[in-house]
Amino acid sequence: MVERSRRPSARLWLAGAVFAIAAAIAPLLQPGSSSARTADPVVATGTAGRSITVMATGEILPHPSVVAHALAGDGYDFGPMFSDLAPLLGAADLAICHLEVPVAPAGTALSGYPVFGIPAEIGTGIQSGGWDRCSTASNHSNDKGTKGIAATLNALDAAGVGHSGTARTPKEAARIPIVTVQGLDVAHLSYTWGFNGTAPSQPWMANVIEPSTILADARAARSAGADLVVISLHWGDEYDRSGNDQQRSLAQQLLASPDIDLLVGTGPHVLQPVLESNGKFALLSLGNVVANQGSEHPDTYDGAVATVTFTVADDGTVHSAAPVVRPTWYDAAAGRVRLLPVALGDASLTAERPLFEASWARTSAVLGPFVIAIDR
Fold it and tell me: Strand 302-312 relative to strand 51-60: parallel, antiparallel, unpaired?
């Protein structure tokens, strides 16, 4: 079964904020199955020579101190937190986020580490920030159980944000999420290493990393007509800036498949290098978009917007340009994500400039060849 949604080529701008509109119902696999998704084959035509830009970011991880910045009257507004990113993400053909933690079910209290539950308003915050869809499979997916998984997807649906990685029903889990972008069909799949020892009540509710299943799902997506297949992986060791052998081995195995075009990694909370294999790229970890993990981990405030441009050749093969990285930094004092290429040129932020420079240096140490060059 395949579900398609069409993404408009133009953006609607309101009061300076970008509102991205995209919808795609999330897939989810059943771990251990050789192919958890089914699809009727669809032949894509007329795509030769077309290009699209995919932008990906790291973890949206609102700790209680982050949520406190979004408090607005009797509710929450995360829009200002992401407003610096909105013009950039709004210019992407497809912008993908990672929502690491679940929404607290109605009638339950908000909570932080180790069992998260965040406000449902995160959905509209993500949408106003310019993202089109999110991966939702993570080690915290089951923090609030079945009701939390449902509440998270309900919040994203209400905001018009697509999602991949968790599911409310077996039917939803079996769907292949494909979004049409500038005439190209893009499948987005999402998986995690586990759930902190508390697995969902049904295996189809959240995708687990299993190489054979990922490869089978990607093959099914390609058979369903996907021109591009993007895989989000929540993996790796926390606070490790290098990436481990398991990540590299899995990345090489997956990128060897003709059915997979890009890997987007999250989980370590810090930036990790970009791996190239078979002319394709694995973004091992894009760090945190927003989190507050303490001054002892300054690099957990560093993130990145990675832009990858894809072109479909006349023979139908997909060519990937090298990623272009724009560093970000979460300003915990202001409760705002700073897009550093812009923030460094803002004369009103003179006091913050040393912090911006330090973040840029940390990011360049990991992702130097891919970081955008700017005049500062």
Answer: antiparallel
Q: Are 291 and 249 in contact (CB under 8 A)?
A: no
Closest CA to 277 of 253, 310, 305: 253
Q: What is the residue type of 60?
A: I
Q: Compute the chain's Rg from CA coordinates.
A: 19
C-alpha span between 118 and 105 (Å, rounded): 9
Strands 176-181, 51-60: pairing kind: unpaired
Q: What is the CATH number of domain 2-370?
A: 3.60.21.10
Q: What is the pLDDT of residues 230-245, one digit of tens each?
A: 999 999 999 999 999 9
Q: How far is CA 187 from CA 97, 123, 170, 327, in A?
A: 15, 21, 19, 26
Output the CA torsion 356→359→361→364 (10° steps): -120
pTM: 0.89
Where do we find the tokens 């949408």?
A: 127
With CA atoms as reference, report the closest residue to 310 among 337, 279, 336: 279
pLDDT above 90 coverage of the chain, percent: 84
Q: pLDDT for 141-151, tens place per residue? A: 999 999 999 99
Q: Is the pLDDT of residue 375 over 90?
A: no
Two structure tokens written together for 232: 């989000």
C-beta atoms surrounding 169 within 10 Å: 13
pLDDT digits (tens, 9 = 90+) for 50-103: 899 999 999 999 999 999 999 999 999 999 999 999 999 999 999 999 999 999
Burial class (CB in 10 A: 0-12, 13-18, 19+), 85: buried
The predicted-structure confidence for 160-181, as pLDDT tens digits, reads as follows 999 999 999 999 999 999 999 9
Domain ranges of the chain: 2-370
